[in-house]
Amino acid sequence: MNIKVINKSANALPAYETLHAAGMDLRADLEESITLKPLERRLIPTGLYIELPIGYEAQIRPRSGLAYKHGIGIVNSPGTIDADYRGEIKVLLVNLSDTPFEINTGDRIAQMVVARHEQVQWQEVGELNETSRGAGGYGHTGKS
Q: What is the mean pLDDT of residues 36-42?
């Protein structure tokens, strides 16, 4: 699939790092470094603008290494970029650790997965088909 992209950053375009990778790393595009204080959240620009085909979205997800090593996550994870959005891709990072974290231009801050999606038409009904699970949720499995 070809996707139109404008790259206003000095970073290379996102790319798959391994043969079977689902996501591409997004990099920070900053004029100067940013320090995220504990529990602080900031919108980090990437300098990327994309034009997705109709029926696709770009999901912005945390990087597992940043989460594990530094407690850095994404507030609205996964974030969704819709096919009709033309603004800059920005990532809403949060520092969930107890130590400050510095972000510099070129740092890998998130990953992006492009995925097909459907739009639904609701069909209002009076009842739903029964299943063995029923209405069980939030930890109901594994209990005797």
A: 98
Q: What is the mean pLDDT of residues 20-34?
A: 97
Question: What is this structure's pTM?
Answer: 0.88
Residues 78/92, Cβ–Cβ less than 8 Å: no
Quote the number of domains for the chain: 1
73 beta partners:
94
The response to whether 65 counts as a known ligand-binding position is yes
82 is in an annotated binding site: yes
* 81 labeled binding residue: yes
Distance CA 137, CA 140 (A): 5
80 annotated as ligand-binding: yes
| CATH number, residue 81 | 2.70.40.10
